[in-house]
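hey
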């Protein structure tokens, strides 16, 4: 049922959004678009975007998200270096596909780490959404490594991670970031379809 109070809250939050958050969100969308196209220039955009988010989330009392984006900064450098090392051709690093066993191991490790980190955040009371914060962080850390390595299934994991992140940021009032992750969700589907076609071309 429509609530005028909820509508006013959302509108006021949108008007009060930081220009830096909007800028970081735009750069983040650009990063995913370029990544789906296998362009190495996705990583510089990622670096700048995550630098801004590191500061914003730390100030907003989402410490795990701040640490996650600090990690993203390092991965942006690693990803750019890795993709660059394979020559000037932007798609020279081949796309690989993980087996079910490898993916199961990833999920088990990620789940155990999520529980451990979530328990710590709950006991220390330093996060507003401890287990959701932990889960988004842990699986994003693992999955960013998959993306840098060009593992096909990374896009499928991003679909789940982005959906969870939307809930997390909705709970904490980051509305521009919700829009960004909604776009991420769509682009993750597009990215998977695009990489799957490229992978089939490689193996045939």
């Amino acid at each position: 049922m429509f609530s005028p109070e909820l509508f006013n809250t959302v509108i006021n939050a949108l008007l009060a959004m930081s220009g830096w958050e909007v800028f970081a969100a735009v750069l983040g969308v650009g990063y995913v678009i370029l990544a789906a196209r296998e362009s190495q220039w996705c990583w510089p955009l990622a670096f700048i975007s995550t630098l801004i988010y590191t500061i914003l989330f730390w100030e907003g009392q989402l410490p795990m998200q701040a640490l996650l984006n600090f990690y993203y900064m390092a991965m942006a450098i690693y990803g750019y270096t890795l993709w660059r090392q394979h020559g000037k051709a932007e798609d020279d690093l081949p796309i690989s596909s993980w087996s079910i066993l490898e993916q199961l191991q990833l999920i088990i490790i990620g789940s155990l780490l999520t529980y451990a980190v979530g328990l710590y955040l709950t006991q220390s009371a330093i996060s507003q959404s401890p287990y959701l914060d932990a889960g988004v962080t842990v699986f994003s850390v693992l999955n960013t490594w998959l993306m840098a390595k060009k593992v096909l299934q990374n896009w499928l994991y991003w679909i789940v991670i982005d959906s969870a992140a939307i809930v997390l940021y909705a709970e904490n009032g980051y509305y521009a970031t919700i829009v960004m992750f909604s776009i991420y969700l769509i682009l993750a589907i597009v990215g998977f379809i695009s990489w799957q076609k490229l992978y089939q071309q490689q193996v045939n």
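The chain has a mean pLDDT of 84. DSSP finds eight helices and no strands in the chain.
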